[in-house]
Amino acid sequence: MSRTRVLLVGAAGETGGSIANGLLENPGFEVHALVRPRSVQKPAIVALQERGVQIRKGDLKGPEESLADVLTGIDVVVSCVGPAEQQDQIPLAKAAKSAGVQRFIPCGFITVAPPGGIMWLRDEKETVYNHIKQLRLPYTIIDIGWWYQLSYPRLGSGRTDYAMTTANNEIVGDGNTPLALTDLRDIGRYVAKIIVDDRTLNKMVFAYNTVLTQNQI
């Protein structure tokens, strides 16, 4: 049985790294990463190569035709770009459509919020989602809530510093609003299951570990 070819965009980042791990744990995937030519020799990229990730050189800001060539033969594209690069996914989606990609996973991976002036980043992502739908490009949008690693306060002793990406010492409102939470390390395992499930095609999926309030945390 042939393996599913998955291309990661942003594979060296926090979310991308988790997804790379989740895919590499499963022998059913052939993992590729889109990397800018100038970044190929960076230690994080070399480390991915050493673990079996195949590198495809390309630039989201390059010609759409070149991107389409890079995506040829890829079954699933998973985008994990940064907040400032959300709109760069639009030419990526066009290239994926041209290349015959079977499923496009835009960079969601945040908490659920309604579009329209509530959360700037959500609005940026929704613009991309709408464009993907207009292209009639098969997609799955995955939200995961807040990372555990962003959701607890720093202890004075520093004992938990190793596990956090950013300390959260602020209580919003009365602290009793339920929050969906996910361990960063689990995101990749969820993605590995979601992208091969036919039930999730052209759907929004909310995957998370647990629900707690800030006061409970």
Automatic annotation (TrEMBL):
Molecular-function GO term, any one: oxidoreductase activity
Domain NmrA-like: start-end pairs: 4-217
Species name: Aspergillus niger (strain ATCC MYA-4892 / CBS 513.88 / FGSC A1513)
E.C. designation(s): 1.3.1.-
Listed Gene3D superfamilies: NAD(P)-binding Rossmann-like Domain (3.40.50.720), UDP-galactose 4-epimerase, domain 1 (3.90.25.10)
Entry annotated with the keyword Kinase: no
Keyword terms, alphabetized: NADP, Oxidoreductase
Class in the EC hierarchy, top level: oxidoreductase
Name of the molecule in the record: Contig An07c0080, genomic contig
InterPro entries: NAD(P)-bd_dom_sf, NmrA-like, NmrA/Isoflavone_reductase-like, PCBER-like
Nuclease is among the record's keywords: no
